[in-house]
Amino acid sequence: MCQQKDNSFCTELGSDVSKWSRQAPLAKPAWIDDSLDDLSKALNLAQEGEIDEARMTLKDSADFELRKWFSVHAQNSGVWRYKALNVPTPEPIAPLDLETKLTKFEVPIFNRDSYHCRYCGSKVIVKKEFKEMQFLLGEQYFPLKGGNKGRSGYYLMFCATLDHVFPRSLGGATDEDNLVTCCWPCNYGKSNYTLAQIGLDNPLSRIPEKRK
């Protein structure tokens, strides 16, 4: 649910369409990518057995700010763009692809894209690594469940997933020619819109950006 419903535009996206990113639904500020340094430090400490120090590092990190940015801005960015651009939804291409399982595509596509989101260029982290972090620190200190209010902000911001460039709901294929590595903010922001509907260039037409 949008938390800026009383505004006429997203305060992070801005009202000037000409200034919107053509690569990502909502470009991440530099501080978000920089916050990965604290996560890396905490993981290293935890792996060395310095659990209390690792927990303290996360406590002093930008975890809350990451969660807030995702909830207030990122997950709704595509809605704002769609409303402003007012591009109609195309007719679905029938029949829809019956392939619904993405798991078998994850490793080859994550490797192809060097574990970076093909939209915003941020580093992404697979769920297995997040679960290792939770195992070392404890669920209380690194929660991965509970929706936007309960999960770690790092999980919401950097968890790796796959995105259908042309939406599956409109007839997009579930294959390596239509799937890209994606972070959750870009995946949620893009939603089931076409690139034209939210004013984005095709991520497969450019070399993957690596912001950090």
Write out key terms for the chains shown.
212 residues; mainly alpha; 41% helix; globular
Your description of this structure?
The chain has one domain (30-87, 101-205). The protein is globular, with a radius of gyration of 18 Å. It is 41% helix and 5% strand. Helix 2 (36-47) packs antiparallel against helix 3 (51-59). With 212 residues, it is mainly alpha-helical. The longest helix has 12 residues, at 36-47. It has a two-stranded antiparallel sheet with strand order 1-2.
Order of helices and strands: HHHHHHHHHEEHH
What is the general shape? globular
Q: Structural class, from helix and strand content? A: mainly alpha
The total tally of domains equals 1
**Number of separate strands:** 2
Task: Give the mean pLDDT.
Answer: 93
Query: What does the radius of gyration come to?
Result: 18 Å
Q: Largest beta sheet: what is the strand line-up?
A: 1-2
- Tally of alpha and pi helices: 11
Main sheet specs:
2 strands, antiparallel
Architecture blueprint of SSEs:
Elements lengths: L29 H5 L1 H12 L3 H9 L3 H10 L4 H9 L17 H10 L14 H11 L9 H4 L2 H6 L1 E5 L14 E5 H7 L4 H4 L14
Antiparallel strand pairs: 1-2
Helix pairs in contact: 2-3
